[in-house]
Amino acid sequence: MHFNLLLQTDVQDFIHEKTGENLTKLAFIKNPFPDIQYATLLHQIECRTRCQKKLPTWFSCRNSIYPSKISIEQTSSETTAQYKSELVSGDFLIDLTGGFGVDDYYFSKTMKRVIHCEIDEELSEIVRHNLMQLQVENVECIHGDSYETLKNLNQKFDWIYIDPSRRNDAKGKVFMLADCLPNVPDSLDFYFEFAENILIKTSPILDIAAGLTELKNVKEIHVIAVDNEVKELLWILSKNISDAVLIKTANQTKLGIEHFDFRLDLESKTTYHLPKRYLYEPNSAIMKSGGFGFVCNQFEVFKLHQHSHLYTSDDLIEFPGRIFEIKLCLDYSKNVIKKYVEKTTANVTIRNFPESVDFIRKKWSIKEGGTNYYFFTTDLNQCKIALLCTKIN
Length: 393
Fold this sequence. Notes:
The chain is α/β, with parallel strands linked by helices. The chain has 15 helices and 18 strands. Strand 2 (113-118), helix 8 and strand 3 form a beta-alpha-beta unit. Helix 1 (9-18) packs across helix 3 and helix 6 runs parallel beside helix 7. The chain is globular. The N and C termini lie far apart (52 Å).
């Protein structure tokens, strides 16, 4: 694939100038470059706009070429790609599902040599071009089927990296690893012939317990969230694993990274109590990990109820999530709620509660916003309660 026309100075000027503008309006403008299909130009503008926050390095690079929208949607963000690069070390890594190459750009900073394997020939050419623009010299792009590429290369790698496609031509969007492409569970023995360490990226939708039943030799599971939204599950597999699985959570915020780790083989003892002075809501990475009992053990806090996933204490502590001071603990009864909650302004959250946020807002005429936070939940005595709180920054 040749990008000469798109790389002309005046064409790049146009793409950069129109980035962020309304595509519907742009579609009615006369194509200033008759030699290039206007749909191609609009596609480059749209994708560059999408990459401004997710991929600022590519956005800032003058001659970046952008592939299909689905490739942009499925690629790692630079934030999560950098995290992954810190999990690997050594000389040689092969990425069997190269995609747009964002992960490999960051792997190239920690590995001496990286192979980007991509079955889509056009995408492989785009990645090769972009890496040249980014002055990356230690990534080799190979177009072809990953299974055949591994057999043909017949080399040992320090790491194999795989991001299985969650779109199956026969089944549509899938959620089990065995239904993804490539089928990692069925291919593990083959992969371990070429590397002792495998890093797998999966969708945050994948159930961790289900993943553990499909995969073997799991050493670590990393739950990665950005600004309290889980983005990826990362699975580290080791050919000679002996220890129990370590689960590591990381929520990357503007103030830093919130970490919380635990081992699956250790017992956790969940302790319960009625609401005390402070309320703690774990970040989304911890919620995804399922390590609720370990939260009690590590932070010496009490859980409100087995299914609430809210914690409490008398003393204020540092905690990986949101922290509130409880001003009132109310029984969820008509007279009480009518007196303290009805026709107020607050942020509403439900945890283990039979009514939805929208239903509660409508029922009690609660306006959205303000500095008050209402948690509707269930306590250890199975009583429905409302906690009226203020947030502690």
